[in-house]
């Protein structure tokens, strides 16, 4: 049976030891289960996870590695202070644009 963990705590801003423990928890659990993290702190998730999925309006709009997500932001002009954040912004903008066209 696959176990799941829903994590919604803020990891950034904790002490270095707390951040490291949270990252280790995500990596450890992710080896044998699905970990769902509800956060806007994309860089923290990218550092702790080998695979990420983004949801928008209840639908998965991206699933891949942090590197693949970063690549989606390259040259896109998407907002964000870091490469992974720009990929996140680019994917969400594209998904929302496509949804607007369908409506």
Description:
With 103 residues, the chain is an alpha+beta fold. It folds into two domains: 1-49, no CATH class; 50-103, no CATH class. It contains four helices and four strands; from the N terminus they run E-H-E-H-E-E-H-H. It has helices at 16-30, 42-48, 66-73, 83-102; strands spanning 3-7, 33-37, 52-56, 59-64. Strands 1-2 form a two-stranded parallel ribbon. The chain is globular and about 40 Å long. It starts with a strand and ends with a helix. The mean pLDDT is 78.
Helices and strands in order:
Blueprint (H helix, E strand, L loop, with lengths): L2 E5 L8 H15 L2 E5 L4 H7 L3 E5 L2 E6 L1 H8 L9 H20 L1
Parallel strand pairs: 1-2
Antiparallel strand pairs: 3-4
Helix pairs in contact: 1-2, 3-4
Main traits of this protein?
103 residues; two-stranded antiparallel sheet; two-stranded parallel sheet; 4 helices; single chain; 49% helix; alpha+beta
């Amino acid at each position: 049976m696959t176990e799941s963990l829903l994590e919604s705590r803020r990891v950034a801003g904790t002490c270095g030891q707390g951040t490291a423990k949270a990252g280790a928890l995500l990596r450890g659990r992710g080896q044998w289960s699905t970990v769902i993290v509800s956060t806007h702190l994309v860089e923290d998730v990218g550092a702790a996870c080998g695979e990420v999925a983004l949801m928008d309006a209840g639908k998965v709009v991206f699933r891949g590695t942090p590197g693949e997500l970063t690549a989606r932001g390259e040259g896109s002009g998407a907002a964000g202070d870091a490469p992974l954040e720009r990929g996140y912004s680019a994917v969400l903008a594209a998904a929302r644009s496509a949804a607007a066209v369908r409506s």
